[in-house]
């Protein structure tokens, strides 16, 4: 079997930042199972109530992990402020926009983890964390299958939260 590091494709996007294509892993059932096992091991000893993910950073691994662990899943997505949703504004490369999370699924004392396919700038992850905390929940850990090291989100946008990634862009 091909190593996960060998299956990933790293490409420079229009801004010169590395973007990760995990399609070869998702297309191969053996590699996908291996990747999911690796992420599962990050959480098998953690005590938490729900998984949060962001549509901007990828939901595939979060959804698979939620199903495997019997946990609920909340996906934040780009929304216009509307009733029933908490929103956070994000400054992106092409302007500002809002991401939202449906209200009512996080209660005071809820322990959440954030799981994404790729950690890059981390602004969407930080927005998700803020929305969990506004509802009285706590984010106990953030993880990504791949982390774009050159952006260093763990020391910028998501500083102060435990972060774990399976692969880093310098690995391939």
CATH class: Alpha Beta
In one word, what is the shape? globular
The CATH architecture would be: 3-Layer(aba) Sandwich
Distance between the termini: 17 Å
**H/E series, N to C?**
HEEHHEHEEEEHEE
Global Rg: 16 Å
Report what the structure shows.
The radius of gyration is 16 Å and the shape is globular. By secondary structure, the chain is an alpha/beta fold. Strands 5-6-4-3-7-8-9 form a seven-stranded mixed sheet, with helices on both faces. It contains five helices and nine strands; from the N terminus they run αββααβαββββαββ. The two termini are 17 Å apart. It has a single domain, classed as Rossmann fold (3-Layer(aba) Sandwich). The mean pLDDT is 92. Strand 5 and strand 6 (95-102) form a beta hairpin.
Topology readout:
Elements: H1 4-7, E1 9-12, E2 18-21, H2 23-27, H3 29-43, E3 50-54, H4 60-69, E4 72-78, E5 85-92, E6 95-102, E7 111-119, H5 123-134, E8 138-147, E9 163-168
Parallel strand pairs: 3-4, 3-7, 7-8, 8-9
Antiparallel strand pairs: 1-2, 4-6, 5-6
Helix pairs in contact: 3-4
